[in-house]
Write a structure and sequence with these properties.
Strand order of the largest sheet: 1-2
Organism: Melanomma pulvis-pyrius CBS 109.77
Distance between the termini: 62 Å
Protein name: Terpene cyclase/mutase family member
Family: Belongs to the terpene cyclase/mutase family.
Largest sheet: 2 strands, antiparallel
Radius of gyration: 25 Å
Number of strands: 8
Number of helices: 27
Bound molecules: lanosterol
Helix content: 40-55%
Shape: globular
Structural class: mainly alpha
GO biological process, one term: triterpenoid biosynthetic process
Domain Squalene cyclase N-terminal: 87-373
Length: 729
């Protein structure tokens, strides 16, 4: 089946392997809505010069001068901030490459392809470049995320993406990818989401897709498995997926998709019994194997419910209701949508339901580029439409911790950041809040933008904290966010506590943990419901704590009770070895930092708490030779601390912050850690990218490139304020 690549093919693919002219890319930031533009003409280039931030994100030299070599922690923090301040964008926020997951671009490119949306040459070229750059050199495959080993999901989907964008199947890199895919059993061994997208494309048959019945949305709310109880990302993906599945919509077969059938499958398409492959999956992809209950449910749906019981009228009602919910999501997010999976899927639904000329479809096509990002390797898809509010709030927090807020040098930067946060606070509820199962949002901040409009417990808390830090803790900042709006934020936060005392991400937990038995996605863990997270809970505790200082009267009893229960949850969440498991950053070093902050808020420190001492000991036991800390993403997958071969600047900063929050008395281990952080700093103040920092759903990693600035600055600053700004180097 395989043709060996002739030299001709190599030459051909090398010729195709062009790069765009990187001096022509620009990042536009319109109130946080970030899009990359490729300027075609010199006139445009003149009118819109490339900024330092553009150059930084594109991996170009900024030409910034060397700074005076730092000797003290505050000098190092100043140099770091001086570099980082150049990356602030005009509306006041910071942006970054928010890549990591390798299953996002395929959904977007398949959607573009099947809706026959023209793809700009610049984009097609750089997406291919990115995927080539991220192909594993040993086997030519792709994983679930950039650091993960090759999987069917990653390899089948990104291979397909390459082909849709015009890559040559004889290109030796594609030949290699194919060989790996076949070794893993081909596309039939892919997880649910791969089978879904490839059926949409017309490369697989819908019989291979485990059922996604839209009628689940008609279940009364009291039913324990009703979708409104699921974690928001699952139900908002399930929603459009159920619509497309129910319509069994697929793209008409053409030459390319026929070719893809033979490239992705290890046996001829015509000979395959697709239904018998619904549950086949490669071990590389099977992080969360399906339960027998789920398999039984699927079997009953396929063999009993769909063919014999379900009336056509019910199918129609379900589809209509699902479409109503999709429209509501589109309107409530101004077509930004919750995330990078339901964004393209809702686009496809608009196309199927209302056609290529509909307003909805066209608005979607305009919004989708907000997920795209350009870095030195090419174009990728971000995990959200940006990290605007989150990184901006954290930056203010770090600058404040370092005691830099009163320094006039940083004033304009901080005022801009405050202006951004002011602009991004949500000021009205969404339409049909109850019927769409949405959480209260007036007064909230989200992770990315107000336009996306989803409340997140810790983003609201971090947003509020940074506003209070500037407006209340320091003089001379404009009062942009009124007291009323601060109270609105607290009103939202007060809706977010679980009976356990902990806080989840977007909403309080709505369903039983037993729902995890219905996790059909295979590649992720803990996706079906919200859980308590030490990270989110801490952000809430610290926000309430700070708020009470300035508004001691407002809902005082509720806040006190909330805080007490939340700190109690943090205590309970500590594991016997003294650590806390992190769900959004890698991993124990991340959660430990938050937990220590919570305990400090509850008055517990090294001097008076065995719990805190145990937490500190856990960290000390893992300090590396060079003074740093480093753990790999395996910690997240396995819930066991996995030491990295090399210490990591970001994780080291997290631990330093944790130990300082704990009031760990001995400065020596901290000095050692900070020396390591200072030695890694470049002469221009920058820190270089190291291993990936973030995670979701236990198995998928995601980049937080700004953390390498934010957390070292905070750690250096906090140390100096506690132990003095002594010379460390
Ligand atoms: C995020 C990013 C931010 C993150 C924090 C605020 C850090 C966290 O404390 C709460 C949860 C939240 C908001 C979060 C949830 C899940 C997201 C949106 C992501 C990890 C970014 C990408 C991920 C999303 C689910 C990716 C799409 C994948 C699916 C499985 C649908």
């Amino acid at each position: 089946k395989e043709k060996s690549a002739s030299n001709g093919a190599v030459a051909k693919s090398a010729a195709r392997n062009v790069k765009t002219d990187y001096t022509r890319w620009r990042l536009k930031d319109d109130r946080g809505c970030q899009t990359w533009h490729y300027l075609e003409t010199d006139k445009e280039m003149e009118a819109w010069p490339q900024s330092l931030a553009d150059k930084f994100h594109l991996g170009m030299d900024l030409g910034l001068p060397d700074l005076p070599p730092p000797k003290t922690p505050l000098q190092a923090a100043t140099n770091g901030l001086s570099y980082f301040s150049h990356l602030q964008l005009p509306p006041g926020n910071w942006a970054c490459d928010y890549g990591g997951p390798m299953f996002l671009l395929p959904g977007l490119v398949i959607t573009w392809y099947v809706t026959e949306t023209p793809i700009p040459e610049s984009h097609a070229t750089e997406i291919k470049n990115y995927l080539f750059a991220r192909q594993h050199p040993e086997d030519g495959g792709w994983g679930l995320h950039i650091e993960g080993e090759s999987t069917v999901f990653g390899t089948a989907m990104n291979y397909t993406t390459m082909r849709l964008l015009g890559a040559d199947p004889d290109d030796p890199r594609l030949v290699k990818a194919r060989a790996t895919l076949w070794k893993l059993g081909g596309a039939l061994n892919g997880p649910h989401w791969a089978k879904f997208w490839l059926s949409v494309l017309g490369v697989l048959d819908y019989d291979v897709v485990n059922p996604v019945p839209p009628e689940l949305w008609l279940l009364p709310d009291w039913v324990p498995i009703a979708p409104w109880r699921w974690w928001i990302h699952m139900r908002q993906v399930f929603l459009p997926m159920s619509y497309v599945y129910s319509r069994r919509w697929s793209y008409p077969l053409n030459h390319l998709t026929r070719q893809l059938r033979s490239e992705l499958l290890v046996q001829p398409f015509e000979t395959i019994n697709f239904d018998s492959h619904r549950n086949t999956i490669s071990p590389t992809d099977n992080y969360h194997p399906k339960t027998w209950i789920l398999r039984l449910l699927f079997w009953l749906l396929i063999n009993v419910w769909f063919p014999f019981i379900r009336p056509a009228s019910l199918k129609k009602r379900a589809e209509d209701h699902v479409w109503w919910l999709i429209e509501a999501e589109d309107e409530n997010t101004d077509f930004a949508n919750l995330g990078p999976v339901n964004g393209p899927m809702n686009t496809l639904c608009a196309y199927i339901h209302s056609g290529p000329d509909s307003v909805a479809f066209r608005e979607h096509i305009k919004s989708l580029p907000e997920f795209l990002w350009v870095n030195k390797e090419g174009m990728l898809m971000n995990g959200t439409n940006g990290v605007q509010t989150w990184d901006t709030a954290f930056t203010i927090n770090a600058v404040a911790a370092a005691g830099f807020c009163d320094n006039p040098t940083w004033r304009p930067m901080l005022v801009k950041a405050l202006e951004f946060l002011e602009d991004q606070q949500m000021d009205e509820e969404c339409r049909d809040l109850k019927a769409c199962y949405r959480q209260q949002r007036k007064g909230a901040w989200g992770f990315s933008t107000k336009k996306q409009g989803y409340t997140v417990s810790d983003c609201t808390s971090e947003g509020l904290k940074s506003v209070l830090m500037l407006q209340k803790q320091h003089n001379g900042f404009p009062e942009l966010v009124s007291d009323r709006r601060c109270k609105d934020a607290i009103d939202v936060v007060l809706t977010m506590q679980n009976p356990s005392g902990g806080c989840a991400s977007y909403e309080p937990t709505r369903g039983s943990v037993l729902l995890e038995h219905l996790n059909a996605a295979e590649v992720f863990g803990n996706i079906m419901i919200e859980y308590d997270y030490p990270e989110c809970t801490t952000a809430v505790i610290t926000a309430l704590h700070m708020f009470q200082k300035y508004f001691p009267e407002y809902r005082a009893d509720e806040i006190k009770a909330f805080k007490g229960r939340a700190v109690e949850y943090i205590r309970r969440a500590q594991r016997p070895d003294g650590s806390w498991y992190g769900s959004w950053g890698i991993c124990f070093t991340y959660a430990g930092m938050f937990a220590m902050e919570s305990l400090a808020c509850g008055g517990e420190t090294y001097a008076n708490s065995a719990r805190v001492r145990k937490g500190c000991q856990f960290f000390l036991d893992h300090q590396m030779e060079d003074g740093g800390w480093g753990e790999t993403y395996r910690s997240c997958e396995t819930s066991v601390y996995h030491q990295h071969a090399r210490s990591q600047v970001v994780q080291t900063a997290w631990v330093v912050i944790a130990l300082l929050e704990a009031e760990f008395p001995d400065p020596e281990p901290l000095r050692k850690a900070l020396r390591m952080i200072m030695r890694r700093q470049q002469a221009n103040g920058e820190w270089l990218q190291e291993a990936i920092e973030g995670v979701f759903n236990k198995s998928c990693m995601i980049s937080y490139p700004n953390y390498k600035f934010i957390f070292p600055i905070k750690a250096l600053g906090l140390f100096a304020r506690r132990f003095g700004n002594e010379e460390l180097l």
